[in-house]
Amino acid sequence: MDHVSNCAAEKNTDAKQTHHITPLFSLLSPLLLRIMALVLALTLLCPSAFATTMDDMLSLGMISVKTQYLNPLVSEEREFQSLTALIYEGLFYLDDDYMPQLGLAASCDSTTDGKHWAIRIRPNIYFHDGQPCTAYDVEATINEILRLAQNDQGQYNQLKYIISSVSVNSAESLQITVSRPYYAVRFAFTFPILPRDQVQAAQPAGTGPFKVDQFLPANLLQLSANENYWNGAPTVKGINVDFKATNRELIMDYEYNRIDAAITRSASAGQYQTGLTNLNIAYRTRQLETLLLNDSANAFPLNNPEIRKAIRYAIDFDTIANTVYFGMAKRTDTPLPAGTWMYKDNETAYSYNPEKARQILDEQGWKSNPNRDNGIRYTTVIVSGKQEERRLRLGLYVYEEQDNSVRVQVAGLIADYLEAVGISVHVETVSFATAAARLQARNYDMAIAAFQMDVVPDPGFLLMSGNTGNYTGYRSSAMDKLCKAMREEREFTQYRQLLWDIQDQFAEDCPFICMWYRAGALLTRKVFTTVRDVREPEILRGIESIGK
Q1: 26 found inside a domain
Q2: What's the number of domains the chain is made of?
Q3: What's the CATH code of the domain at 134?
Q4: Do 497 and 471 contact (CB within 8 A), yes or no?
Q5: pLDDT tens digits for range 83-128
Q6: Within this chain, do residues 304 and 183 fall inside the same structural domain, yes or no?
Q7: DSSP per residue over 233-259, as a string?
Q8: Is the distance from CB of 328 to CB of 265 less than 8 angstroms?
Q9: What's the pLDDT band for 35 if we cut at 50, 70, 90?
Q10: How far apart are CA 156 and CA 142, in angstroms?
Q11: Per-residue pLDDT tens for 353-390?
């Protein structure tokens, strides 16, 4: 959830310290002061230098009010998954380049048709309770995920579209049969492995670098280093996590030095800039924010792709992101995250160009008269053999999360941009349930909606005709063909090319508008990771190996 808060730092203590150190600094030359400041900054920002002075313990704060169980298969809060990712591991993990690498799996080979995957488990892997990790544990975990998925439950329920069955050959090896024999299968194998007799336990044992000492829901979590970790004992010996109900409480704890670091998705975290004593590390979430457009055949005038493109050209999404989110949003023009191997950049198609928007509207017969209806565009249509005048008025639904007005601000700015090109927009804030019902019924013009994207790089659920996430009524035989080919492609280069072709088709059809992936912030006074791509849910990835 998003939260907005404003907290004042403690001033009195800082004032006293400044009074005492000023006479000393007054004796130094300005050049020497600059050199000292540079050396201090480099020391603070260099992970290797920081690791030599870092304490064995880390105190961390985050929001958690709903999570009652540590079982990662039924996680409820996304930030909380950054903690379970330290406790549990998958057959594969994703590296800094968003590429799958072997984790608990020692090897993974597929048959020629790509439908059957033979996996061997690394030897000498043990759960925190001393039990060995075997193929039987993988089988039990997969079956539990598929059981939950029957009712669309569980954190990994999308696996039901990829894995069809699993069978064990021995304690060291198993075979997984898939229904989609494509390149992205390895991404799906990143789900956490639990002991076979604990897949439904509230606090199952894991194999990760940290084990649980104490967990009090909505209160605290204490982790200690797994000294027998198969990939080497962690250098950080313990992590104490303090859970808060609001971002105001969380930020206050950070400002008053009660915690070393805070994880938050609140846009207010954007005010904290990296400096000599503070680091603001942005991390990428999988929450894609979109402006949905009703493309249904009878949804005039948005059933015309040229009108949808005009709307896209008319809105400056970069400025909105910077204005409203203070940098806590990662812009993307397609359903795939920018800056990754899967993203296809097409600046010409998505650039802010209000003159181009006006040109398209003119060409599509929408006239503009500044002396009439405040410049709202109008056109003439034939209804039952008679001419009728229609004005370009659209509704925009927006739903909000508790304690968060960010989307309402975004909706207001979108309305302002569209009004500037002659499109009148009525913004209506509704509950999530109301928005969901109207999207399902396609009873809307435009709507701001978020999608939690899967770890598997496959946007087909949003784009294929009649698919689960296609709320716009978009239908394209060309797009369906591309998505089908993607879901059959097993070679990386061709798979990436098909993702790029899908994005080119997306730019041409403009079924909806992608705005940004929400970003989170890791506010910290200690550098405890050297990973290049800090992302959800492995926000703390690398903490176990700092200084090695």
Answers
A1: no
A2: 2
A3: 3.90.76.10
A4: no
A5: 999 999 999 999 999 999 999 999 999 999 999 999 999 999 999 9
A6: no
A7: --SS-EEEEEEESSHHHHHHHHHTTSS
A8: yes
A9: very low
A10: 10
A11: 999 999 999 999 999 988 888 899 999 988 778 888 99
Please give the average per-residue pLDDT across 172-184, as a whole number. 97
Q: Are strands 116-121 and 173-178 parallel, antiparallel or unpaired?
A: antiparallel
Q: Phi first, then psi: what are they for 533, rounded to 5°?
A: -115, 95
438 shares a domain with 337: yes
Burial label, 17 (beta-carbon count in 10 A; 0-12, 13-18, 19+): exposed
Q: What is the mean pLDDT of residues 213-229?
A: 97
Amino acid at 501: D
For residue 26, pLDDT beyond 90: no
Q: Is 375 exposed, middle or buried (0-12, 13-18, 19+ CB in 10 A)?
A: middle
Report the predicted TM-score, pTM, of the whole model to 2 decimal places.
0.86
Q: Which of 480, 515, 488, 396 shows the shortest CA–CA distance to 446?
A: 396
Residues 169 and 296 in one domain: no
What whole-number distance in Å separates Cα of residue 435 and Cα of residue 290? 14
Q: Answer yes or no: is 274 within a domain.
A: no
Instruction: Supply the CATH number for residue 353's domain.
Output: 3.10.105.10
189 and 324 both lie in a single domain: no
**Chain-centre distance of CA 308, in angstroms?**
26
Q: Is residue 336 part of a domain?
A: yes
225 pLDDT above the threshold of 60? yes
| Identity of residue 521 | A
Paired tokens of 22? 């000023």
User: Residue 392 sits in which domain range?
Assistant: 286-520
Q: Which two tokens stand for residue 60?
A: 């961390």
> Residue 452 and residue 446: Cα distance in Å, rounded?
19
Question: Does 311 share its domain with 187?
Answer: no
Do 298 and 197 lie in one domain? The reply is no
Q: Classify residue 537 by its DSSP letter.
A: S
Are 355 and 498 in the same domain? yes
pLDDT of residue 55: 59
Residue 74 lies in a domain: no
Whether the CB-CB separation of 291 and 512 falls below 8 Å is answered with yes
